Amino acid sequence: MFWAILLAILFVYSDGAGKCPEGSTDYGDRAECVYPVNAKTNYTVAKQICRNFNGQIIIVRDIFENVIAGSQAALSIAANSQSYIGVMNANGTWINDDGTPLVYQNWKAGHPQTNASCAVESAQDYKWTSVSCDALHTFICSIPDRNCPNGWVAHDKMCYYFYDPKLALMNQTFTRMQGQNACLAMNANLTSILSESEFNFLKDQIATNSSMISSQSCQNPQALIGLTCVDNIRSWLDGSQFAYDQTLSQCDSSYGIINDTRCERSAYWDYWPDDFGYYRYICKKSLVSSFDLLKAHFE
């Protein structure tokens, strides 16, 4: 039963453009995606599905979160839906599913009832009703915001990794192939550059000055990017369409960028043969969440 429900959910899910899955909304104060699931099951299975999304049954801690959960359920499920939330009866005391006391509650008149064990929230008036945990209801998950891994920098729905050793102690260089392999090991590619705004962001991140690399030339400290050119055809290693060009029409095996007032070539992408060694490289990949990874597993 659990896997049938899970597969049904994954089948209808399509990746959203923001920090949260499509059909959910970002509640920034909690750094969570409020995700109503339009599949009816008991409370135990609902909890397991939320855990497999790297989340939990939503624990409502204030009126704002309660309204967000109810209104999102009305949009994603139905205006009259009743969805499980993370509230349960523990030996006669109603608590949050994580064992903490209820700091906020919004019970319907006559509830909670002593013979009930779980709670559902109405998408119509956001009131809570006590029910049996064995009853079949839709449910609402709380999934962490999508974030870049530690050490990565987020920009415009992408994550970037800047391999940038202590500039005064540079002692290892990377060819285009070595840099790409290092990125692939992190499920990424050497960065593509698809717009002027992205180029400006990257330049801000790699900026240097004479006090940082006074003993270095303006060649090796360039940051390797994922562009290559063969027979005057330029291509990005991540498969992106080549549409934004700062190569000055020069064709070569590898390209690097730098942002240093000492260097004449900081305004465009410098070109080098395949065996040229760079001290720095930039990796790029999409913002992901465990929700996305789980979905991909079933595709």
Automatic annotation (TrEMBL):
Q: Which residues cross the membrane?
A: none
**Position of the signal peptide:** 1-18
Q: What InterPro entries is this protein classified in? A: C-type_lectin-like, C-type_lectin-like/link_sf, C-type_lectin/snaclec_domain, CTDL_fold
Task: Give a yes or no for keyword Ligase in this entry.
Answer: no
Q: Boundaries of each C-type lectin domain copy?
A: 29-142
Q: Keywords in UniProt for this one? A: Signal
What Gene3D superfamilies does the annotation carry?
Answer: Mannose-Binding Protein A, subunit A (3.10.100.10)
CDD domains from the xrefs? CLECT (cd00037)
Q: Does the keyword Signal apply?
A: yes
Q: What is this protein called?
A: C-type lectin domain-containing protein
